[in-house]
Design brief:
With 215 residues, the chain is mainly α. The chain has nine helices and no strands.
Length: 215
């Protein structure tokens, strides 16, 4: 095997590995929405949270709403942030709604109906937070985004380079959390959504830090 063939094989292997990890990221997002967030009404930021909020208002399925919000952002990000970023983010943007249709919706609130009222949202905040944080962390490690507010944050940083992505994400997702509380009329929902957002941010930090240490 000559040098060029070896380099080509390594490149193909790296691309396949990237897309396998990105697929796992999409699965984690779908699991968080269908197993944790939909039945409890939590909206812990991101396009996921925005999709849940608009789905509650319009009764359009979360998977379709997520796609409608993500695609315009994706087009803009591809133009500004590069084709490589765009291709992988396009893949995750398209495949996540597919997995949302495949993963069954679990009525967590109903399953916990015989337990104290706070058990279901607490489980959703913790488990959903770890799943979404893992999804975003994996995507960032693979030089793409989940098609959510991480894309918006990267676009804002492209214009305002003095701002850091985590700071932008917290502000954006915090706004979604506040909106979820206003729309639901339930301060507890906003509180548990904020807890989930905290778990998401901590999980992203752990995953991205570990990836940098392994380089």
């Amino acid at each position: 095997m000559d040098c060029n063939s070896a380099m080509t094989q390594q490149r193909v292997t790296a691309i396949v590995k990237d897309f396998l990890w990105i697929t796992l990221s999409a699965i984690f997002t779908a699991m968080a929405v269908n197993l944790c967030f939909q039945s409890t009404g939590l909206a812990p930021g991101g396009i996921t949270g925005l999709s849940i909020i608009f789905s509650l208002i319009t009764h359009i399925p979360v998977s379709y709403m997520s796609l409608a919000i993500s695609v315009p952002l994706l087009i803009l990000a591809t133009v500004l942030l590069g084709k490589g970023f765009g291709v992988k983010t396009l893949y995750i943007t398209l495949i996540t709604p597919v997995f949302m249709e495949l993963v069954p919706v679990f009525d967590l609130s109903g399953a916990c109906s015989n337990l104290p009222w706070f058990v279901a949202p607490l489980i959703a905040a913790l488990a959903g937070g770890v799943l979404v944080g893992s999804a975003v962390g994996i995507a960032l490690n693979r030089q793409c985004a989940t098609g959510g507010t991480d894309v918006i944050a990267l676009l804002i940083q492209y214009v305002l380079r003095f701002l850091k992505v985590p700071t932008i994400l917290f502000c954006l997702d915090g706004s979604v959390v506040i909106a979820s509380g206003v729309i639901s009329g339930n301060a507890w929902i906003a509180g548990f959504s904020l807890l989930s957002l905290f778990i998401i941010m901590q999980t992203i930090r752990k995953i991205t830090q570990k990836a940098r240490q392994n380089l």
